[in-house]
């Protein structure tokens, strides 16, 4: 509790403005400062005033969330912060406050904060192949995402950290449904299906249609979740190192345990550039382009930086190939 009160970030206008854009640099901030900035996002979207969220409960929830992210290379509290910050930025840039029900925005921002809670650093394929407790508990169905969501509601059930305690029954039901939908949608195994449903409704998208906004909510958290490459190069590059470090430790363990190894995680098969060229071309860009069709302002803010990153990594990849390397770096 004191942690947050003691910390005195200077919230200048410049910081507040930057917090709304994808250019925000997470690496400049201490954990305590990021906790304060997360609070600021809830306040600034007026979710606190609108839904009677108690400041103490919000602070307590964020501290409990902080404690339930693990100290692992990628899926840590800093990643939680980045995804939440991107979600906040997207909501601001697209002016979603004037387009969607605010209870859905509350669900989206809270989901972002909670979306990788207690991530163990090994993905669903590992959980399933290694028959871990999580895979057994959730019958191999999105074991990690089910776990993140269950932990989220475990924290929200505690009275002191229940930011939803002043909601009506209907509002609570709605926010819980929204959060479950959003967090479960972050399973990349469902990527193609979710993107296909979004592309199918895009030509007739209607903000008054609940089915449409439900898909949009899923797309928004997915975009936020995998948005590192939309950030400036000096912010994005360290994240790639973190991700590959976590991937490589998983594949090392899989080799030791005689489990199947995903090629995109194998340190003998993957380079920084090959990994990013494939991911950006086949996963990131199609997703971002779809969202930018609905919100043209995102063309400049998201699609262009990602296209630049693709160019950068393609050039690097070509140079590697020409030098006849093994593709390793
Ligand atoms: P998360 O693991 O954060 O729950 O879901 C996002 C997943 O998308 C990551 O685990 C990873 O597999 C993939 N991903 C996100 N960002 C990148 C990236 O920059 N490069 C690559 N190759 N994969 C990414
Ligand atoms: Mg996840
Ligand atoms: Mn994530």
TrEMBL record:
UniProt enzyme class: hydrolase
Where is Zn(2+) 2 annotated to bind? 116
Residues that, per the record, bind AMP: 75-79, 116, 225, 276
Query: Which terms does the record give in the GO molecular function aspect?
Result: 3',5'-cyclic-GMP phosphodiesterase activity; metal ion binding
Listed cofactors = a divalent metal cation
Active-site residues, as the UniProt record annotates them: 75
**Domain PDEase, first and last residues per copy:** 1-320
User: What keywords is this UniProt entry annotated with?
Assistant: cGMP, Hydrolase, Metal-binding
Q: Which domain of life is it from?
A: Eukaryota
Task: Write out the catalysed reaction.
Answer: 3',5'-cyclic GMP + H2O = GMP + H(+)
Could you say which residues bind Zn(2+) 1 here? 79, 115-116, 225
Please state the pathway this protein functions in, per its UniProt record. Purine metabolism; 3',5'-cyclic GMP degradation; GMP from 3',5'-cyclic GMP: step 1/1
Cofactor annotation comment: Binds 2 divalent metal cations per subunit. Site 1 may preferentially bind zinc ions, while site 2 has a preference for magnesium and/or manganese ions.
EC assignment: 3.1.4.-
A Gene Ontology annotation in the biological process aspect, one of them, is: signal transduction
Its family? Answer: Belongs to the cyclic nucleotide phosphodiesterase family. PDE9 subfamily.
The protein's job, in short, is: Specifically hydrolyzes the second messenger cGMP, which is a key regulator of many important physiological processes. Highly specific: compared to other members of the cyclic nucleotide phosphodiesterase family, has the highest affinity and selectivity for cGMP. Specifically regulates natriuretic-peptide-dependent cGMP signaling in heart, acting as a regulator of cardiac hypertrophy in myocytes and muscle. Does not regulate nitric oxide-dependent cGMP in heart.
Q: What is this protein called?
A: Phosphodiesterase
Tell me which species this is from.
Petromyzon marinus (Sea lamprey)
Q: The organism's lineage?
A: Eukaryota, Metazoa, Chordata, Craniata, Vertebrata
Portion held of the full protein? 172 to 500 of 540
């Amino acid at each position: 509790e004191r942690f947050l009160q003691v910390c005195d970030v200077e919230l200048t206008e410049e910081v507040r403005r930057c917090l709304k854009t994808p250019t925000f640099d997470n690496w400049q901030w201490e954990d305590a400062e990021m906790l304060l900035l997360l609070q600021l996002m809830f306040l600034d979207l007026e979710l606190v005033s609108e839904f009677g969220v108690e400041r103490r409960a919000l602070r307590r929830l964020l501290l409990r969330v902080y404690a339930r992210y693990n100290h692992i290379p990628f899926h840590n509290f800093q990643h939680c912060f980045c995804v939440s910050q991107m979600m906040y930025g997207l909501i601001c840039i697209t002016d979603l406050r004037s387009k969607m029900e605010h209870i859905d925005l509350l669900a989206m921002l809270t989901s972002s904060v909670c979306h990788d809670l207690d991530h163990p650093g090994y993905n669903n394929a590992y959980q399933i192949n290694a028959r871990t407790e999580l895979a057994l508990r959730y019958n191999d169905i999105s074991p990690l995402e089910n776990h993140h969501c269950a932990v989220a509601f475990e924290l929200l059930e505690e009275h002191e950290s229940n930011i939803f305690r002043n909601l009506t029954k209907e509002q609570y039901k709605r926010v819980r449904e929204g959060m479950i939908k959003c967090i479960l949608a972050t399973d990349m195994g469902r990527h193609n299906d979710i993107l296909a449903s979004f592309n199918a409704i895009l030509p007739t998208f209607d903000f008054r249609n609940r089915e449409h906004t439900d898909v949009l909510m899923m797309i928004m958290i997915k975009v936020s979740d995998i948005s590192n490459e939309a950030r400036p190069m000096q912010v994005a590059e360290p994240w790639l190192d973190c991700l590959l470090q976590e991937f490589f430790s998983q594949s090392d363990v899989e080799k030791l345990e005689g489990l199947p190894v995903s090629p995109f995680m194998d340190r003998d098969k993957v380079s920084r550039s090959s990994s990013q060229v494939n991911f950006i071309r086949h996963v990131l860009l199609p997703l971002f382009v779809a969202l930018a069709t609905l919100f043209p302002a995102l063309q400049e803010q998201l699609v262009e930086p990602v296209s630049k990153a693709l160019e950068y990594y393609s050039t690097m990849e070509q140079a590697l190939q020409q030098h006849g390397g093994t593709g390793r770096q």
